[in-house]
Amino acid sequence: MHFATREEITLRLGSDWVQNAVHFGSIPLHPLGEQSFYQFVMGAKNPTETRERMAVIFQHFSIDVLAASLFAWNLMISARLVRRRPRTIATQCCLIQSVVGLVCAIAGMSGSLPVGPSCRALTWVTTASVRIGDLCVGAVLLQKAYIVTNRNRRLFFFIPVIAAAAPALLYASWSSPAIITAGSGCIFIYPEYFPWLRFGLHAPMNIVLTGIFLNVVYRQWRQFGTRAWEQLAKEGILVGLLMLLSNLLCTFIIAFEVFGLYSIMILLADW
User: Fold this and answer.
1) Where do the TM regions start and end (predicted)?
2) Contact at 8 Å (CB) between 118 and 40?
């Protein structure tokens, strides 16, 4: 499968679009990103182009339907957990993530309606939703690490990092031009520094917390042998470790743009 490179997609932007663009505050809006999916299909010039554009919309719609189904299922589970343990940070964060994810997926599906949101609006909703997810995951993992390290207050150092990462990454995303074409689909063309900014904000905490959880796993294994896995699963250590390893893997994939500009889409799978 061919993933378009940054250079290939950037060519579709043109060279002088910023001078003629409508601005949202200080953010220039590319005209290709101001189309809804419906307008995008209706703008095709011939039957072949119509089929190509409809194929792109079908891919987006299928992903949104799948995401909506998963988040709806997670919402039911997290709602039960909140009823059982209403004051637990982990259950509250799971509920928030599920609600935000479901809203995001429904917004994506509505893009196919004649009065649906534009591609740019959908990328803004999606990136904002992912940033909320980052905050929830960071809060849960940091709390778990705080508990297993006997309430080591040095971990509080990561709180301002988590808090600052979301608005910094969100602004970098929103200030990037969004476009929709038959060759690229609906995508925002983030600046070259974006993957490394995300890497710098996420990787240090992920590496430290992964080390903490691996140390807990090793100590439990030495003490209890194979019985340690059941105890670790009950305490949520294994889930936390899997979340960290997944997030760390995604961080490296995005930083090195393994799939070109589409590497950013791996965040949806991690979410």
Assistant:
1) 57-77, 89-109, 121-143, 155-174, 199-218, 238-269
2) no
pLDDT at 148: 82
The model's pLDDT over 163-210, given as tens digits with 9 standing for 90+, comes to 999 999 999 999 999 999 887 789 888 888 888 888 888 888 888 888
Residue 167 or residue 262, greater confidence: 167
Q: Which domains does the chain have, with CATH numbers?
A: 6-270 (1.20.1070)
The answer to whether 131 and 169 have CB atoms below 8 angstroms apart is: yes
Q: What is the pLDDT of residues 216-247, one digit of tens each?
A: 777 777 776 666 666 665 556 677 677 777 77
**Lowest-pLDDT choice from 63-77, 82-96, 205-219, 254-268:** 254-268
Query: Does 1 score more than 50 pLDDT?
Result: no
Write the DSSP string, the chain: -----HHHHHHHH-SSHHHH-EEETTEEE-GGGG-BHHHHHHT-SSHHHHHHHHHHHHHHHHHHHHHHHHHHHHHHHHHHHHHHSTT-HHHHHHHHHHHHHHHHHHHHHHTTSTTPPBHHHHHHHHHHHHHHHHHHHHHHHHHHHHHHTTS-GGGGGHHHHHHHHHHHHHHHHHTS-EEEETTTEEEE---TTHHHHHHHHHHHHHHHHHHHHHHHHHHHHHHHGGGHHHHHHHHTHHHHHHHHHHHHHHHHHHHTTTTGGGGGGHHHHH-
> What is the structure's pLDDT at 36?
93
CB atoms within 10 A of CB 168: 15
User: How far is CA 172 from each of CA 113, 176, 231, 271, rounded to the nearest angstrom?
Assistant: 28, 6, 41, 19
